[in-house]
Amino acid sequence: MKINILQAKKNIGSREKFKFVTSTEEIDLVGEGPWISNEIKVEGELTNNGRVLKINGVIHATAKHQCNYCLEDFITNMEIPFSEDYQEVSNEEIDDETDLAYYNGDEIDIADLVRESMILAEPLKVVCSKSCLGLCPHCGINLNVSECCCNDNVIDPRLAVLSKLLK
């Protein structure tokens, strides 16, 4: 996924749009994370602001997750934003404290940027819907599908003494 920057380097203030279609195999994400290997769409814009080349964009990908509450599998479409500033490699000393990526030549390869953005976008807690009821803690039935007959008023015997305080 290389972006030709020859025209953008010449003209300060220039903007160029780009679009790619790739797969998990092409960006080395096979077996890593929930990503389904069908097409991954990447679109964005390259801007030359005179100091750096700024790349902003969005990744459109499909992921297969398992809900943390009810353990059901579901597929979701994700839109993952990404942004990076690039500066041409020069003989000057490179400042490690600046948050810049460097390029050399007339192309910038954004495959690593896309891969990194997708890995960082994986949610820590995955829920199939905001109204997911999860599993019954006693019998394990999926409460989204059916109701159970378990008694929710079971009190931990270690805390039973505290219930006397409420009376």
Give me a quick take on this structure.
The protein has 167 residues and is mainly β.
Task: Describe the model.
The chain is mainly β and 167 residues long. Helix content is 11%, strand content 34%. The chain is built from three helices and seven strands. It folds into two domains: 129 residues, no CATH class; 35 residues, no CATH class. A hairpin with a 6-residue loop joins strand 4 and strand 5. The strands form two sheets. A five-stranded mixed sheet has the order 2-3-4-5-6. A two-stranded antiparallel sheet has the order 1-7.
Which features would summarize this protein structure in a list?
167 residues; mainly beta; 2 domains; five-stranded mixed β-sheet; 3 helices
> What characterizes the major β-sheet?
5 strands, mixed
Tally of structural domains: 2
Helix content bin: 10-25%
Q: Return the string of H and E elements.
A: EHEEEEEEHH
Q: Say how many strands there are.
A: 7
Main structural class: mainly beta
Rounded to the nearest angstrom, the radius of gyration is: 25 Å
Q: Could you outline the blueprint of secondary structure elements for this entry?
A:
Layout: E1 2-4, H1 6-10, E2 15-22, E3 40-48, E4 53-66, E5 73-88, E6 101-103, E7 107-109, H2 111-120, H3 160-163
Parallel strand pairs: 5-6
Antiparallel strand pairs: 1-7, 2-3, 3-4, 4-5
